[in-house]
Write a structure and sequence with these properties.
This protein is 30% helix and 18% strand. With 296 residues, the protein is of the alpha/beta class. It has a domain at 2-82 and 125-167 and 219-295: Rossmann fold, CATH 3.40.50. The protein has an eight-stranded mixed β-sheet with strand order 3-1-13-12-10-4-5-6, with helices on both faces. A three-stranded antiparallel β-sheet has the order 8-7-9. Strands 2-11 form a two-stranded antiparallel sheet.
């Protein structure tokens, strides 16, 4: 586990889960979403000192905003996007544009096969998810804003009202024609039975999991709730996100911009390392339970 520390300073800035706007397009290669180049991080310090430093900053706080990305779920068996074994090493990001999904039945078939094999619907929460439930129970946490679509925060025990899903939830499927919503498991059973591109049972329209694709706007209610939390938070803990895809990354950035403590837990650099009060380069399943234990 590698840890870095530095003062939290305000800054101005322009990131099946990161965030896109209606005009966003997937870049070539493995990148995806609207990204910025990572900035240099801070010098490293000893791991034990890092946990202690983070706990010291967060201990007085009673409205900690937790922001999570794909890295918190990799230990549950769900691949991230940009890592060595990430989804973009095996899939074409262009398949996740709304335009292509609507016009190409081949793309829809490929998407449903991917959902069948991804395992996200059957995944179980890991130690990091469970630790955040403990943080919530302690009364120190205002809520969790997540880029993830796997529903593992709720499965771990966080109440629905505590979780803001910026990019939707893969457990629900929506008809793009009439808006009918049903469990994704129902559509996948139809795929398993031989329907490679299941259509709406009510109107025959195109079905799509209720997650945000390239070319779709973020849900207005979720976006508003996320930034309301950012305005009220007295600290932010970012877990498993490279903080490189906007507008989602504006949420923790706003808390840091207000001069509040900013703790980052991520394996590898992030775009906001230069803003971090403390940065822990470690698996979420190791660092988050240790940090929450030190706090509670």
């Amino acid at each position: 586990m590698r840890v870095s520390s530095g003062a939290c300073i305000p800054a101005c800035g322009p990131s099946i889960g990161d965030a896109w706007g209606a005009d966003a397009r997937p870049p070539p290669g493995r990148g995806y979403g609207r990204t910025r180049r990572a900035t240099p991080g801070r010098p490293t310090i000893a791991p034990v000192e890092g946990i202690a430093a983070a706990a010291g900053l967060l201990r007085p706080c009673r409205r900690i905003l937790v922001f999570t990305g794909a890295g918190i779920s990799t230990e549950s068996g769900i691949p991230d996007f940009r890592g060595p074994e990430g989804l973009w090493t095996r899939m074409d990001p262009a398949d996740f544009t709304l335009e292509r999904y609507l016009r190409s039945r081949t793309t829809r078939r490929r998407s449903w096969r991917m959902r069948m094999n991804a395992g996200a619907l059957d995944a179980s929460p890991n130690a990091a998810h469970r630790a955040l439930v403990g943080l919530w129970a302690s009364g120190r946490m205002i809520g969790c804003v997540t880029q993830n679509i796997d529903g593992l925060h709720q499965k771990a025990g966080l109440p629905e009202e505590a979780v803001v899903e910026l990019h939707g939830n893969a457990h629900t499927t929506v008809c793009l024609g009439c808006g009918d919503r049903r469990p994704t498991a129902e559509a996948l059973r139809r795929v398993e039975d031989g329907e490679d591109d299941p259509s709406c049972l009510l109107c025959g329209g195109i079905l799509k999991t209720a997650v945000i694709y390239f070319g779709e706007m973020l849900p207005p209610a979720a976006t508003a709730a996320a930034f309301d939390m950012a305005e009220e938070a007295d600290a932010v803990l970012s877990v498993g996100s490279t903080l490189s895809v906007f507008p989602a990354a504006y949420v923790p950035h706003r808390v840091a911009q207000r001069g509040r403590p900013f703790v980052i837990v991520n394996q590898g650099p992030t775009d906001f390392d230069h803003l971090a009060s403390v940065r822990l380069d470690a698996p979420a399943g190791t660092a988050v339970p240790a940090l929450v234990s030190a706090l509670t």
